[in-house]
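A reminder from the course coordinator: this example appears on the midterm review sheet, so study it carefully.

Given structure:
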């Protein structure tokens, strides 16, 4: 579909006016500081604004500058990120901060290609930083923008396919008005978040309702087309809080792999034919070379990840026999239960710690 000048201008004018009058008062919008825009954009990936706000404020209080991120201990960075998931993003933030400090004297680069080369920054994040922080005419396409564009142009193709994404990016770039990329791009995302919602869109409040072909055709409920839904793989896991002399044992995962560098309670996957308790005894012996005594189930937690749904069986037990040795973890220690909140854990473990 080719965009006419008249349609493009109408979309630009109506959307920017709507954004100016209806945008949310968000902390990174007060000054459009590149550092704050960058952190907010990484935090907002697959996470709603209401969830991100307390994380963002806590992060900025603890790490107010790029230099402070670059020089912080990894555990501090991961702890501030705890609960947002995808911990590789937090590590990439620190790697980027160190590069910016070393190669750009601590000032976030404004050049799009230089931004794109930084760890953990892809086309979307680079476009968001360029357009929002520096008002450069670079497109952005996230879930909200895809939904708005698919409905606006009645685009029925599978939006996860390469050709479809190419078309969506072309439209997103073509629609940006010169000198107003900041307001337009934010307007597209804001419209998707507040009005053009996945279910029950508020069309009567939409500034683009007269331009929206999806509304005219009555196809909004079918758009965007995301293809067939992939079922998450179920995994059963058993973990244990081992107690000894008033303290509990925690261990640190390797620096590479799933949940890299995070602290956790010992345990692991339940194999076919095993009960969670049998798996627990086996995992503790394999990981630590010790036994546990009087294990008791204290909580069952169900937690969803992108590709998996985990059924977590949480036990507590006393230290048994054997000499403790780390066979898979890179660090381990006995800590007071009150001190557990100082360490970064996977989200499912955090739910257990809150109960402890």
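Designed residues:
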């Amino acid at each position: 579909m080719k965009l006419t000048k008249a349609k493009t201008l109408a979309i630009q004018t109506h959307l920017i006016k709507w954004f100016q009058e209806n945008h949310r008062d968000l902390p990174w919008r007060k000054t459009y500081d590149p550092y704050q825009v960058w952190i907010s954009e990484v935090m907002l990936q697959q996470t709603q604004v209401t969830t991100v706000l307390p994380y963002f404020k806590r992060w900025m209080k603890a790490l107010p500058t790029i230099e402070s991120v670059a020089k912080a201990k990894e555990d501090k960075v991961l702890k501030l990120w705890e609960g947002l998931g995808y911990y590789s993003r937090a590590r990439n933030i620190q790697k980027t901060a160190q590069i910016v400090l070393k190669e750009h004297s601590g000032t976030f680069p404004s050049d799009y290609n230089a931004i794109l080369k930084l760890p953990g920054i892809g086309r979307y994040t680079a476009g968001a930083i360029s357009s929002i922080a520096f008002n450069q005419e670079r497109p952005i396409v996230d879930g909200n923008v895809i939904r708005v564009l698919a409905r606006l142009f009645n685009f029925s193709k599978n939006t996860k396919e390469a050709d479809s994404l190419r078309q969506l990016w072309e439209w997103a770039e073509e629609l940006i008005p010169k000198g107003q990329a900041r307001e337009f791009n934010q307007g597209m995302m804001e419209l998707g978040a507040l009005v053009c919602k996945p279910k029950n869109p508020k069309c009567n409040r939409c500034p683009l309702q007269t331009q929206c072909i999806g509304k005219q055709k009555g196809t909004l409920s079918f758009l965007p087309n995301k293809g067939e839904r992939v079922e998450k793989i179920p995994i059963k896991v058993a973990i244990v809080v081992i107690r000894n002399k008033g303290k509990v044992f925690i261990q640190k995962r390797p620096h590479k792999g799933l949940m890299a560098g995070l602290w956790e309670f010992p345990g692991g996957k339940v194999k076919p034919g095993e009960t969670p308790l049998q798996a627990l005894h086996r995992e503790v012996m394999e990981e630590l070379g010790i036994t546990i005594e009087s294990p008791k189930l204290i909580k069952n937690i169900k937690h969803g990840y992108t590709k998996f749904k985990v059924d977590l069986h949480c036990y507590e037990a006393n230290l048994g026999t054997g000499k403790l040795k780390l066979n898979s973890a890179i660090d381990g220690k006995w800590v007071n239960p009150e001190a557990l909140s100082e360490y970064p854990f996977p989200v499912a473990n955090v739910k257990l710690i809150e109960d402890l």
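The radius of gyration is 24 Å. The chain has 14 helices and seven strands.
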